[in-house]
Amino acid sequence: MGIFENFIIGPMTPWGPFIVGLVGLVCAFALYGLIMKYPEGNPKVVKIGNQIHLGAKVFMITEYKILLPVLLVLVLACGFSPLGWDTALAIAVGALSSAIAGFIGMYSATKANVRTATAAEESGQERALSISFFGGSIMGLCVASMGLIGLGGLYVYFVGSMNDDYKTIASALEGFGVGASAVALFSRVGGGIFTKSADVGADLVGKIEAGIPEDDPRNPGVIADNVGDNVGDIAGMGSDIFESYCGAMIASIAIAATLSNPDLMFLPLWLAASGLFCSLIGIGIVRSQVSRSPAVALRYGTFFSPIIFLIFAGLSIYYSPNVEMNYFYSILTGAVGGILIGLITEYYTGGSTLDSPVGKIAKSGETGPATVIISGLSVGMISVVMPILVIAGIIGVSTYFSGLYGVGIAAVGMLSTVGITMAIDAYGPVADNAGGIAEMSGMKSEVREITDSLDELGNTTAAIGKGFAIGAAALAALAIIAAFTQVTKVELLLSDPRVLVGMFIGGTIPFLVSSITMTAVGDAAFEMIEEIRRQFREIPGLLEGKADPDTAKCVDIATNAALKKMLLPGAIAILSPIVIGFGLGAIELGGMLAGALLGCVLLALMMANAGGAWDNAKKFVEKGNFGGKGTETHSAAVVGDTVGDPFKDTSGPSMNILINVMAIVSLVIAPLL
Amino acid sequence: MGIFENFIIGPMTPWGPFIVGLVGLVCAFALYGLIMKYPEGNPKVVKIGNQIHLGAKVFMITEYKILLPVLLVLVLACGFSPLGWDTALAIAVGALSSAIAGFIGMYSATKANVRTATAAEESGQERALSISFFGGSIMGLCVASMGLIGLGGLYVYFVGSMNDDYKTIASALEGFGVGASAVALFSRVGGGIFTKSADVGADLVGKIEAGIPEDDPRNPGVIADNVGDNVGDIAGMGSDIFESYCGAMIASIAIAATLSNPDLMFLPLWLAASGLFCSLIGIGIVRSQVSRSPAVALRYGTFFSPIIFLIFAGLSIYYSPNVEMNYFYSILTGAVGGILIGLITEYYTGGSTLDSPVGKIAKSGETGPATVIISGLSVGMISVVMPILVIAGIIGVSTYFSGLYGVGIAAVGMLSTVGITMAIDAYGPVADNAGGIAEMSGMKSEVREITDSLDELGNTTAAIGKGFAIGAAALAALAIIAAFTQVTKVELLLSDPRVLVGMFIGGTIPFLVSSITMTAVGDAAFEMIEEIRRQFREIPGLLEGKADPDTAKCVDIATNAALKKMLLPGAIAILSPIVIGFGLGAIELGGMLAGALLGCVLLALMMANAGGAWDNAKKFVEKGNFGGKGTETHSAAVVGDTVGDPFKDTSGPSMNILINVMAIVSLVIAPLL
């Protein structure tokens, strides 16, 4: 194991990252035990909770069942190809790690939601926040832990079996990214279609046609809507971040391998392991501050973990004989950039004054839905500028210090404390679900107020998380593309028409996939609408509350629609690099990746931020501004929110996956081109 | 004049293009004389016509007045800089040529519109089509002629004075592009803001608040709305095409100069001159076929001119000793590609069946405005794929035959028959105006039916024209960027972080400018709404039709708002290459141009097509589908149309200008970097 010889930082051993991953997983299980100690609630709550839990479980199992043959084909094709069985093994391990993380996260979240609602009713805000945050933390810890267990374990195994052949090790590890990407594709795109078709469908029939409030238990679609939060915003988001997290490490390892530098190959794993420790500390900080103020507690967690991580990373690099401080500056750039992007996102989507972007969108509702759409799109478009300038800054500074490796390690720096970031991110949907459960089970309005305030806080943190996820995905993808150029040794000159042809082709792909996923949500929502209408028509006494709706049927429809509709975008993501790479060549493929990257990042930011801003503009009106609920202004704001739903929760997030899948597939097939 | 020695194709002399330009201009004046022979109409029509004519004239004069100091600064700065006074002269000539073309086009269109309305009333469809088509043809001929007069004249002058120093000649000619771009910036962006603020403002108050129909003479904003068609869709569009037309020639000349090939330098001018001849033939064909069917007549013109042009170009290159046939294949690629892009645009925006994209958007109106927006955006997004694949194909094929020069000459091939393309394009707004005049002057409904059918045809041709304009602008800009890389001799490697930084920065600029122009329309429309509301409130008897509205005041407001609001996007377009070029460097600037090009083309297509599709979806409902006018479905479709207005007529078209201004400014400052 000569690869580690020069890399002695404190007590770190080659198995370190793997072991830290195991520790993180144990902590996640401990949190699960903690949650389960709290009371589930009255029978009505238990019943609703079980329906959501079961629906989410069925969706994920169905999803994994469809994924399995796809993965088998990938693994076998890879194994029998010149890429070999090591890469094939990595694909399997990558997929398994991501799937396990997502499943545990979803499983725990659907246990935490009922307990949050019950805690809000019985004990108040503080305990409700604790439980929902623990629920989110399990997802966060699972992402970080499973990443370290899977990638860290494979790394040590490959180093042992391949006798320090750097490039072969790096090449085999790339399979891990493919596996993680495949799961992310299904979870995030499928989950995104599920959650929004259920949401839009339930809302359109329930609120508008039947005239019953949101989350009303008579609406057959509400369980599906709540299931959607868990499979889309928790498991889906988790698989998205997992992919970026591992992608950043894999890309850094690949670039380090082309430099034949074993220390730099190990550095990303070391950083991720440190970051998981710091996330655990951060989760503790949030827990200890909950009694003061939820907002303050979450903010402390968001900022303290990266700061501790940076101190830790700086010191350990300073004391490493073979790793220069320059690398630390790149890491610092990435971590600071990630926070900046989050804050910018918050500005555009989280405002609550008349002068804020959100306030202006709400005001434009006074002249009807058209102006709400125009102003929301306008906010979405301008909101891409600052985050992308930050990304450009990260690229410029990180490569100044560390060359192309800098981009990879900056992404690792941004993503190291993913445990806490993801925890804060996933807490929102848990609180949102708790609110839905409170409403459906007829808890008193004070309970709903508590869950609403938690949810609102969660919306802002979710927006920050989305901005962060996009930034991280962009950097991770860029690092993978950089690795691609290093591995293929192609010269991608912008004055080369082949590069331009590829770039134009690549630029269209995010628009194509966005269009397909938006249409998919519309179509699936339409099926949902038909079913809800049918139930209202055919089940006697349903609207009067005397009969139960067939909620399972709605979950079923959303599940099937989602998984059917994600096949086409999935195929585009996986096949486009293969078709262009083998059909045209590596140079065109390189150009395509650059064009797709730019398009994906631009659209992802625009859609996520416009969607978030519309959502909050509607909430802003609902708080009583511009006349509040029931006015024309409110109806106009609802139109914006409905358009924003597939933007922010389906098409937008799909962009992260799309570019990462395209990049990692390209990197894997690079040696064959 | 050794530069022409080896270039003897038939009777062509160095002064050929200039002389052909003069001939074209004479034909334009002849058409003007023809139009003026037709009766203007009754006093009511004359009065309305005069108001529109005057409003348009005032707008353009105000616009040119503001432009003048900007141009003076540009000319002087350039003259005193190392670029020198030849380039400065070219800037002045370029601006003057474009300004003259736009002014004549607008002037004639506002003479043709009243005569079209009167002809529709007195003589029927055939004569109405002739007059409106002649009105549009004047704009088309002016664009082609003034381009040849200006650029052709300067070319001969520089060749004479510079003693065959190719690179200096090419460099001086680039100034022409800067001048043309500056005018386009003001005309297209300012005109776009004018036309849509007037349109949206007049519609929102008139139709929705006051409950009076479109183009009702009681609405103080309708004159401004009709003025907008002339300054935005005719003069603005003309300046846009003028810029691409000359940009393509200038870029080809610049690339040919780096190859030290005088024959290839002259080729674009020769092609453009041939194209103008073919356009004249095409105009004749349309005129002769009008009696059969308007649709057939326009289609004949659209296809015959390019075919004749290609035969002409093929033969003359075949018989030229120093120009290889390979160049012809590149020209062919460009011309065919332009037609393909037009047809694809027609598919996405011009459908009239239930299964067409337009029909599906209309159907989505049954579930409200939100689904109309989602489906329209979805159509807009997917509609970018095919045109961009065509552009990628043009790049691939044209460079295969002719290297980077191929992109330039393909763009020239696409744009050579601009006379007829622009004629068909500009005919639509003339017919639209005629319809408005018919409505305002209370002509009988049969007249309106005639103008409506002409307008509808015009809408489709305008959509084709927009697709064509985007494709041409993209290729022209790409050619200019290619010239930039040849002149600066920078190596723009995608693996170079500086290129990536530039690319990300560049990618944000189209989003920034789109956001600004959309907000500008909203703000300006709001001022318009306030004024219209004030007039309805303060002018006694206005709503009862007993008093005249103060239409001039509304024109004034739109003029000031438009010109004020276009300064920021204009400044971004001109300054961003200067700031990045001198602040970061030529490599970052090259990356920025690539990112901006990709972003501009993607957004331009998406916005133009989504806007066109929404527009036609509303018309589709108005024809009685899904319940027709007055239904909820119609209201939903109107929301889509209102969102589409700034998309297709302001922000979308601004993208063409934006990338061309950025590219030409970069090319001009290239020697200084």
What is this structure, in a nutshell?
Chain A is mostly helical.
Q: What is the overall number of helices of chain A?
A: 20
- Alpha-carbon distance between the two ends of chain A: 31 Å
Strand segment tally of chain A:
0
Oligomeric state of the chains?
homodimer
Biggest interface, CB < 8 A: A-B, 75 and 74 residues
Q: Roughly how many Å is the radius of gyration of chain A?
A: 24 Å
Helices and strands of chain A, in order, run as HHHHHHHHHHHHHHHHHHHH
Strand content of chain A: under 5%
Give the CA-based shape of chain A. globular
Overall SS class of chain A: mainly alpha
Main beta-sheet strand count, sense and barrel state of chain A: none
Helix content of chain A: over 70%
Number of domains of chain A: 1
Low-confidence regions of chain A: 1-11
Mean pLDDT of chain A: 89
